[in-house]
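Dear colleagues,

For the upcoming journal club I promised to circulate an example of a predicted protein-ligand complex. I picked one with adenosine-5'-triphosphate because it came up in last month's discussion. The inputs are reproduced below in full, followed by the predicted structure.
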Amino acid sequence: MEKITSLAKRRGFVFQSSEIYGGQNGAWDYGPMGIELKNRIAQTWWKEMTQLHDDIVGLDAAILMHPRTWEASGHVENFTDPLVDCKKCKARFRADQIPEENLAAKKCPECGGELTDTRKFNLMFKTHIGPAEDSASIIYLRPETAQGIYVNYKNIIQSNRMKIPFGIAQIGKAFRNEIVTKNFIFRTCEFEQMEMQFFVKPGTDEEWFGEWRKRRWAYYEKLGVKMDHLRWHQHGPGELAHYAKDAYDIEYLFPMGWRELEGVHNRSDYDLTRHTQFSGKDLQYIDQDSSAERYIPYIIETSAGLTRNVLMILCDAYDEEQVADKGNDDDWRTVLRFHPSLAPVTVAVLPLMKKDGLAELAQDIRKELKEDFATDYDQGGAIGRRYRRQDEAGTPFCVTIDYESKDNGSVTLRFRDSMEQVRVNRAELAARLRKEIKEYKRDLNVRVVRG
Ligand code: ATP
């Protein structure tokens, strides 16, 4: 993880928030490369969930919601973590994340000091709206994006004539006052979620629950993620959230071990029933195809962390490879093997020399490619070193312009993963790149990781 954190900073993926003031815990800033990667992950998810599904539409609800929302959803009452403090070293822990014997003996796992009693701690950030700071002005930063979907579900049925089964997708910020934020951007107080709520007829929920588990698994497969680094974890009775009838997590093998990446939940009719009770509005669905039958739909939720997906993609892409082809045993390269559709820069244009018109020609080619691809341009230093820089940033393709390019209009196309180079005519370059992106398949056998 240290290597990934340092690469992320060095290459402008992720910076600690407010670093010049010593940093703000639980908050991170996405730099020029990070925002591109995050945006592409979000776009890929959005396309998968909306464009490729006729029965799913999008929404962008406000972060600030009526405070009754969070009473109805159960978050005011139930969205708590068990907290213990060490009286000696002042370390703070989630009671469910320290060894049971420490908890039983009230012994700090770090310094052996005495632990406080466990107390419940609500994870919602509270603030005030308007000038008065009294109980009537309390408002919460949303701890999940889902509720914005539930309170709009009737609006969407009416405005977009949706029929059950159908889904609503949303990407947006969520906030949780996490007790322990560690492991880089894995668990933060401010993060982004990509959630889809699928509304189904009661009785069909288990079938849809299975279907969405299959679809979400296939999504990661399509992204080219190392599938032996993914597994399912079903929530036991003690783990189920207050709204859940059944829940599975997709876990990823992060450097610190197996951790949740995404949850697929059967939320039953809990949320809409509660919003009916708390708002006094009838949130039943009227099934016009089935003699106006009325019911509160069940909801299958797929809830993935966008920022957690950024971390997963960084970890999954990270490789250190020995490039022994030059007879130099110590020639290692760091390479981020992003899927080309996720890479912050798709193609880097590199003139072999600055002089003799090569730089101008390269700029001209870059200008042509810019319309269709995220490009970078680098004319400084030895070509080998420039390739390494692009490898480390995860750029899948480099185009090198040399003297032959001036003579016959051909360029060298270099592939990040295999380091292979081929000559391509300038006129065919864009089409070739499009084909390579579409047909990209990651070769998982090429890696040799430094011990
Ligand atoms: P945990 O038990 O780890 O606190 P959770 O089960 O409460 O997580 P969910 O409420 O199911 O998490 O949230 C759905 C997804 O949102 C998670 O799978 C994760 O990817 C993301 N997520 C949740 N909390 C955080 C956080 N603090 N920082 C970053 N991502 C988060």
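Two points we might discuss: The pocket of adenosine-5'-triphosphate is lined by residues 144, 176, 178, 187-188, 191, 193, 260-263, 303-305, 307-308 (CB under 6 Å). The mean pLDDT is 93.

See you all on Thursday,
B. R.
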